[in-house]
Amino acid sequence: MNNRPYNVSIYQEKGYRNIIQIIFDHALSDPKLTAMRQKRFGIWKETSWIELETLTLSLASALSFLGVIKGMQVGILSENRQEWVLSQFGINCLGALVVGMYPTSPANEIEHLVNSSETSILFIEDQEQLDKIIKIEPKVKKLKKLIIFDPKGCEKYSIMNLTSFESLIEEGKKLLLKDENIRKNLKKEVQNIDQNDTAMMMFTSGSTGLPKAAEISFYNLWYAGFLASKSFMKFKPGSNILSYLPLCHIAEQNMTVINCLTGQLIMNFGESLRTIRQDLREVAPELFFGVPRIWQKLQAELLVNMYNTGKFRKWFLIKAFDNATKRGLKRRDRWNVFDLICFYFFYFTVYKSILSYAGLSKNKLAITAAAPISPDLLAFMRGIGVHLIEVWGMTETTGAATIQPDGWSSDGRVGYFFPSLEWKIAKDGELLVKGGNVFKGYFKDKNSTNETIKNGWLHTGDIAEESSDGSISIIDRKKDIMINSAGKNITPTLIENALKSSPYIKESIVIGDGYKYVTSLIQIDFDTVRSWAEQNEISYTNFKSLSQNKEVFSMINDEVYSINQSLSSVQQIKKIYLLPKELDHDDGEVTATMKIKRKSLEIFYNKEIKRMYA
User: CB–CB of 190/93 below 8 Å?
Assistant: First the structure.
């Protein structure tokens, strides 16, 4: 056993290892330290690194008995829970591929995911997911076996040799006890996994078409950990993260699996998405990742509470929040003495309790990525004391490729590229990347792969700008850039982010390609608009009646008018339409990652759009 305390330099010194070898190494050096926690019925249960190794080998032995071999595709369809990563490790232990699928996907989309990835065995979470598989059973010919994490209510089903996860684990343990050679042989198989073998298939968002299966190699995963170890993994072993976003998304894989294996951090899995706020307070993670919508929701909640408090406290909170936003717009290294005085005054009177309430009292680093975030929202969070930095990456770069330095001290919005990566901006403004994090390609889709990787360079599809200090800002997706009837370029993401800086606007879809002026479809934020309506004694019954209320429209229109003052004339919104319902994945309006399907929405609301241009 190694007596040297673990730190990320050991990860760098040992060089390439696949993720299973890293688990084995942690189990050897620190067998009793906690690797993960799972909350069940209000109680957190810990799993040590040596227990994690045993569970991994037990699952691998049971899966091998079922016929899983190297290179086979095994899917996982579930929300975040301990069983998700245990299944991942058991599958990868055999050199098989993990195919992550979004649990929010409707049955018809799951049919595409299963068939396009050629998944033969599928781990599912519960009866809800089982019902989806039953609907598509005749159409998924290669799917032969189902393993269910939570079998409650499913005892009567025998579809596709349905087996419970618990019974699979027990069977694997029996196999290991029966034959000592199985453990030895499995460890040999792990050593024989080639670094270029595919470890995972991760589906793209599918915002412009069907999701494509991106192949991520074992080396890609290790390299992502290497980049993290060089740049921001300054956390002590045993530091906490909370895993709650979909593990089938590369961003959460980076946070939960890669970072925790790299830094020997603790993976924490709450009871469900519904208990996220309580789980966050209990875990108080040192490292936390939130997509922009998470930060937007927190800000909206704080503003609702502010509006519902007494006059003096409301006045004081407005002062504290306004000061936070103004200060947060500056780089931390450019705060003057007055900024620091204001921060510490409001920190001890307001911000400290907010951070505690939000579960971020121990947080040392918070990360936002996966979608653009409003500059004002970013400033607000930084101003109240959240050390929130932006990173940029994508499925095809195995997660983060750029990161802002401490104190968000870069002029570019998403910071600098990791030093070992190559990058350049093409003549048309597209960002190109080269390095060990670039994925292998799309599964059985040579045309898309060849369009994306040319001469070793990944064509990201993002338009970028380089600042004078060498840092990067992402302007928009290349395919989303609009040209109005006068021939001027419009970047919809910039306008949409400006609109979403209003606490009353949850989503915005800008229209303007080929038109004389810009308009927008707007989804109100139900919580904040509801609070505003109640304060103004406006009656409503549901989302539709609230969004279609004339006074609500007038208020949102005023918000848009105010935001327009910060936009150039060509970018200003001339007319708006308030959506009568919340955007829904099942209705084909957003992807599983809640990205807007712009073309679909333009078709769905074609009549309303035409009226805005009548």
Answer: yes
**Looking at residue 54, which CATH number applies to its domain?**
3.40.50.12780
What does the angle CA 452 – CA 456 – CA 461 come to, to the nearest 5 degrees?
30
Report the alpha-carbon distance of residue 408 to residue 142 in Å, rounded. 48
**379, part of any domain:** no
State how many domains the chain has: 2
- 497-537 tens-digit pLDDT: 899 989 899 999 999 999 999 999 999 999 899 999 998 99
Task: Name the residue range of residue 585's domain.
Answer: 481-612
pTM, entire model: 0.90
For residue 326, tell me if it sits in a domain. no
CA–CA dist 12, 233 (Å, integer)? 12
| Spatial separation of the C-alpha atoms in residues 298 and 319, rounded to whole Å | 18
DSSP string, 79-103: SS-HHHHHHHHHHHHTTPEEEEE-T
Let me know if residue 205 belongs to a domain: no
Q: Which residues pair with 458 in a beta bridge?
A: 433, 453
Candidates 244, 364, 350; CA nearest to 302 is: 350
- C-alpha distances out from residue 591 to 106, 211, 293, 421, 598, Å: 11, 9, 14, 30, 10
Token match 């992502």: residue?
224
- Tell me the CA end-to-end span of the chain in Å, nearest whole number: 76
For residue 493, tell me if it sits in a domain.
yes
**Structure token pair of residue 154:** 């499913």
